[in-house]
Amino acid sequence: MKRFLTTALILATLAAPGCSRKVPEDPFRAEQQRIMNNRGRLVLDLARPENMHAAKIEGATLVRGLAGTGADEPPSTYQQLVLQDLQRDVDQKRTAKSQIASLDTAIVLLETIVPPGARVGDRLDVTLKLQPGSEASSVQGGYVRGAELYQYMAADVIRRGYKLGVVDGYVTLDPDLVANKSPVAYKQGKIVGGAVVSRSRPIWLELKENERSPGIAKQVEDVINKRFSYTKTGYAGKKKVAEAKSGATRINLEVPEEYRDNIVRYVNVVCAISFFETADELNERVDRLAVQLLNPETSEFASIRLEAIGPSNEKVVDAIRKGMTSPDATVRFNSAITSAYFNIRADRQQTARVLAEFAANDAERRPAALATLGVCMKTSFDVDAELRKLLSAPENETRYGAFRALWTRNPSDYMIQGENLANQFAYHSLNCGGTPFAHVAMSSRPEIVLFNADQIFLQGEIYIEANSRLTIRTDGDEIVVKKYETTDGVNEQRRVGFKVDETIRAIVEIGGSYSDVVSFLTQAKSGGYLKSIGPDGTATACAFGIDSLPGAKNTRFKRIRDVEEIARREEAREAAERAAKEENRSIWSRMNPATWFGNDEEKAASNDDFDFDEFDAANGEETDSDAASSDSQEFDSDAETADAALKNDEFAVDEEETEE
Length: 660
Hints:
Layout: H1 2-14, H2 27-37, H3 43-46, E1 47-50, E2 55-63, H4 77-87, H5 96-101, E3 106-114, E4 123-130, E5 143-154, E6 158-170, H6 175-179, E7 188-197, E8 203-207, H7 214-227, E9 229-231, E10 238-240, E11 242-245, E12 250-253, H8 263-271, H9 279-293, H10 299-309, H11 314-324, H12 329-342, H13 348-361, H14 366-375, H15 381-390, H16 396-409, E13 419-421, E14 425-430, E15 437-441, E16 447-451, E17 456-458, E18 463-467, E19 470-475, E20 478-485, E21 490-496, H17 500-509, H18 514-526, E22 530-533, E23 539-541, E24 543-546, H19 563-568, H20 571-584, H21 587-590, H22 600-609, H23 612-618, H24 625-659
């Protein structure tokens, strides 16, 4: 009877409502296991970079100061946009239509490209051209004030998106188009550095669909911030670069200052950061990358992966130092680039020397070497000294590249100090050694640089029209710079010597613009008037350049590959190594509890590989089938004994009941 009641109670308990329900899974434990499943993976395996493309922004506005070369344009969509913009200003509302009708103005279309990672306040070059069918003849001498740039959305009617930039500045004609007498030479131009970004353009990482969770997003944010931080103006201390947004899908990225001009490298390095790995696994990976760094075929790949690990790892730093002493140029170059971004005080001198060597002697690697010297190790006097030496290098593009790198580091450096002429352009008159060289910038910022200005002169019977109202000509032993003001009858002129420096200053003093100075220099060069006078008094043609920055025109520049391509570069090799290692790994590694939290495929592989017989054999235990069968027989005999005891017990209970 007792046994019957016990059995009934157990069945009733099992049948009770709710007992058959599944125990709810602990979300924290599930999230932790999900993180463990991503062990050994990199950020690029979990997320992809977004908003990495350049964005075009446009605008329509009036170009002013054309001195009769403008036009009263017929009605158009662009005219309506310009009219609306003018009427928003109270001071211009009444005169808006008359301004558009003036022959001293013309409606022009503006366009520029906003790079990924652009911040508020960044300056961009703006291209400018007359609207289709315009009756205006020239934009030379014109200027733009307060024009707005938008992302335009074209439908049945042109619509504006967000305002992303504001434009101010003088129009500069393309010297090449003018020299080649192109029919559009005077109908388009550029405002160098004229656009100011008014809305930042951030980049971010988008988690892949099967990896989206708060835990994964937070872990990605943490590993990136552990590697990178940046200094922000008005912010006390360092600021983190990564911040998880929009739940579990997006991680916004700020770009550290040293990577501002190399966003692609920055994203490559971020995506090469390890999501989760043990100290032993990290050491093993560093050893493998150190070997790959010394191989020219895999050197670039390894240098970025080592850069992602960072300078806090001693083995990484040692590997980079060894790479900088390699006899192979590719290995030495890639190691020096990573060393520059590490900015370790003890390595600055050697890093600067290696990169300066490539800047001087290797045209293909010169752009990256100079760009890196310009933005990295800004507190290093060794870098400044190497760049100053390059100002007198044989190659003119090396000299100007060194100038720009020095200016990026410190605009007030004693070797390159300049001045702002008429608040229109930067003017640098250098005495740095080497051959004389005159340079004009048509990108980044309006700028004139004269290398060894004391040796650059004008020679010959000169007559140059910088524009229709400004001329430069010889008059006996002097140069006459004259500006004709036909509207009010007032003319102004300056008489100077034959030094180019004096002529440039005279043009600005009488109201000439940056475009006028560029026009004067290009015509002086094409006319054979631009000369350099040597120490012995002999005159030779002076070198002249426009945007001679390394990599800007025909110089080949090996860019770092995009994120996915650089990640695939060694994928096959590493996969083969992992397969070989998996095949040869010991039974002890397969019993490591840390491998129990892999994904389903990894678990299945681990279960298939693991064999208790193999484990027993490794420990000298008996593994034959007889031992297994004896264990089974022992279990069976124990079961039979238990059944017999149970029967005897039941029989005894029945006897007691019978007696009762």
